[in-house]
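Subject: mismatched residue count in predicted assembly?

I count 570 residues in my input, but I want to confirm that the predicted structure covers every chain. Input:
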Amino acid sequence: MSGTYRRLLPYLLVLPGGLWLVVFFLLPAVQLVATSLYDPAGSLADGYAMTWAFGNYPDAIRAYWAHFGRSFGYAGLATALALLLGYPLAYVIALRAGRWQHLLLVCVVAPMFTSFLVRTLAWKAILADTGPVVGLLREVHLLAPDGRLLASPVAVVTSLTYGYLPFMVLPIYASLQRLDRRLLEAARDLNARPAQVFWTVTLPLSRPGVVAGTLLTVIPASGDYISAELLGTPRDYMIGNVIDAAFLVRLDYPQGAALSVLLLLVILVLTIGYLRRGAEEVG
Amino acid sequence: MARRLWRRVADHWVLAAAALVLGYLLLPVVVVAGLSVNRPSSRLSYDFHEATLDNWRDPCAAPGMCAALLRSVQIGFLATAISTVLGTLLAFALVRYRFRGRTALNLLVLAPMATPEVVLGTSLLALLVAAGVPQGFWTVVIAHVMFCVSFVVVTVRARLSGMDRRLEEAALDLYASEWQAFCRVTLPMALPGIVAAALLSFSLSFDDFVVTNFTSGTTVTFPMYVWGANQRGIPPQVNVVGTAMFAVALLLMAAVRLRGRRARQPAPPSRGDAGAASERPVSAEVG
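Triage response: the counts match. Full output below for your records.
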């Protein structure tokens, strides 16, 4: 094999995949930003003029700030709940399951193969007005006799938490699985109480998993609009619902693009802030 | 004594919590299976009414569903084939070589995974419209390959970076050509990662709604069909598909598990290449 070939080999390997990502990910992102600056007076049929209309951004925020707030509120709540629910499960699978470990992992992963939409619709049956959950809650007076769960923020957050829970469990499991168990034994030998072992050794060591899980949950959840559409009402709509309608129903491309770019920017800022804070606390 | 008691309580508290969470994860799957054998009282109702096997006997009774299903399978296979090849090449380059632009490429690979699907979908739609490309079957394939590639790279890279390179060096020392070493040593060792990546790609593509919604035009995939059906009333056959997919996933995982277990056991001497070796007493070498 010649030297030139050897030198070019990595570039040849990279070329097709890299090109695909540049053309179908990077270029569209640039076009999205361009579209967000088009003249809002144009239309899809007549074409849009590029007028660097930065005013699209404040206009979009003024019209839909409540949806943004709701998106990050619901997504934040769902992420907190997923962490609260997912940590014990990941902990048990990684450290307590023994020979059941593989089976439990399958139980976490396998539901993801049942279509996301079909599973979300199952919540419609579970939380139905005549269903067992609502019946029980009415019985114990946690819900008014005519109270419902469906078509409410409770249903949307329940479904968001459910949908992204595996993305919280798996990274935490992976980091707990990797941790050196001799450290836990050492802490116990030094008379640390189980709670102390957990708070001072286990939890800090599983931090990378918690960080990864949080991001993998909060990012897709804040852009999700399937839960709000299938289980909520327009009063529960998130920013994804608005973006979907802007592009596919109202055909207002500049506004839809501006909202999309804003969503991405907010997520970027939150992610960087979160990672930096995490790094500071560890360092 | 008190401490031991507390420890038991704490242990069981964690186990009970984990069991409840597992129940939360599995409940919708159970409900989907239940609804798959349900005859609803009316077209719009989604409550359990009456048990029947009709939905399983004729899943295609729901108008349009099987065509959508077939289209999703076609798109899934195409997107999986392309993204697995592209992603595996990228993963090899990123793990094995130092080259200019490597850091930027790493970022480019990770970025689609950190981007909400709405943003991916609307960006592509904006580009397709600006370029005057009509949306349909092939734009969906292109879009699916785009977000699957990242997951393939991450999965294959994890496998490759855990591999012992000395095995390849040994093959080269034993006068294998680079190509032979690659085909006989590197590729077989990387294969579990590549297979896992392909399975992941297929499930991501098959299940995708958001990106598809923005790039499909009038093409209807299975998730698009379910979305549309939600307004008209969901046919119970949709739950047959959900349950069947769950069953197939379980079978595949069991198969992978069994194969993995067999691979870890010492292989019986095969006839072809080990014929001469097996004439000698092998116990000393194997032991």
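Confidence is low (pLDDT under 50) at residues 269-287 of chain B. Marking this ticket as 'not a bug'.
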